[in-house]
Design goal:
The protein is an alpha/beta fold. The protein contains ten helices and twelve strands. The two termini are 28 Å apart.
């Protein structure tokens, strides 16, 4: 079994130490069971894929479609991406070339995403963006118990947030395209579960709404002017999923005109977020640099999934978490 590990390219904004941490974690996950070679971005690419069975790609958002063609021509049997989302990957090209593509499931990062979303919720409930000691500026805070949380996308991270929010006494509403068994609804104390066409109905009732949906053509800008017009003026938007789920132009308008109270954002339509972007200037916005899922635990889980698929491939089993054509 020959494995090619692709790390971030030299042009990546990731520092060398961060790249090394990922490589060290992969080496630890392999635990001596397999050997691997490192992809060298500065050397000719094609010859590095010769004889390779599995590609483990930690540079999925900074890759090159040409590598897909090279891998398919070389007979690579699996391309394992370590990301959850695949909106930045040319999935169609993999399928055109019959090159299996696997990713990390949402459960690999559900805990830190839920915790990050909850951090934003707590920050707004306690007005941490306003209460300051330098001017002894105080504003009354709010208790979360009894407030209503709307979750858009009841996947792994959405359920993880529901579990934590319910423990604080929040009422849970959710919208998802999928059906869920009643025992799942009961376990996560979801009091309302609607379909996408019931989104506006839910938005009109929530105090906080948190985005946990994947990014597709159908979900792009799913929160725009109409959505913000339906929300309470005291409501807060949380987004730890994907930036383009929200129409940022409409969001800035909603935040500056008082259509909604505030927003806690970890993801943006353009990343890095430009310093002169209006969101950078607003006092009722709390921003973080797409870091919600970046924990050592997430890294270990994602690389463990990659190694599990390598083991399965060697045993002649189908890899887990394959990305289907309609993903």
């Amino acid at each position: 079994m020959k494995i090619l590990y692709i790390g971030k390219p030299p042009t990546s904004r990731y520092v060398a130490a961060a790249k090394q941490v990922w490589l060290d974690a992969f080496h630890e996950a392999l635990d001596g069971r397999f050997s691997y070679v490192l992809f060298d971005w500065d050397q000719p690419h094609a010859q590095q894929f010769e004889g390779i069975d599995t590609v483990v790609d930690t540079a999925v958002n900074e890759g090159d479609d040409a590598l897909i063609d090279i891998a398919a021509a070389a007979g690579v049997r699996l391309w394992q991406a370590t990301s959850v989302g695949v909106d930045h990957i040319n999935v169609a090209r993999y399928h055109e070339l019959n090159l299996p593509l696997a990713h990390s499931p949402g459960a690999s990062s559900s805990i830190p995403l839920a915790e990050h979303a909850l951090m934003f919720i707590l920050a707004f409930s306690k007005n941490l963006y306003y209460n300051r000691t330098d001017m002894w500026q105080r504003q009354i805070s709010h208790e979360l118990a009894g407030s209503v949380l709307g979750i858009i996308g009841l996947g792994a991270s959405g359920r993880a947030l529901a579990k934590r929010a319910a423990a604080l006494g929040m009422h849970i509403m959710a919208v998802d395209i999928l059906e869920f068994e009643q025992d799942v609804i009961d376990e996560y104390q979801v009091e309302f579960l609607g379909k996408p066409d019931q989104l506006l109905e839910m938005l009109a009732r929530v105090d906080y709404v948190s985005m946990h949906a994947p990014l597709y053509d159908l979900t792009r800008h799913m929160l725009g002017q109409a959505a913000f017009e339906h929300m309470k003026t005291s409501a807060v938007l949380i987004n730890v999923a994907r930036g383009p789920l929200v129409d940022e132009t409409a969001l800035v308008t909603a935040l500056t005109t008082g259509q909604i109270r505030g927003a806690g954002l970890d993801v943006f339509e353009t990343e890095p977020l430009p310093l002169d972007h209006p969101l950078q200037q607003l006092e009722n916005v709390i921003l973080s640099p797409h870091c919600a899922g970046y924990t050592p635990e997430t890294r270990r889980r994602r690389l463990a999934i990659a190694v599990e698929n390598i083991v399965r491939l060697e045993a002649g089993l189908e890899p887990l978490h394959l990305v289907t054509e309609d993903y």
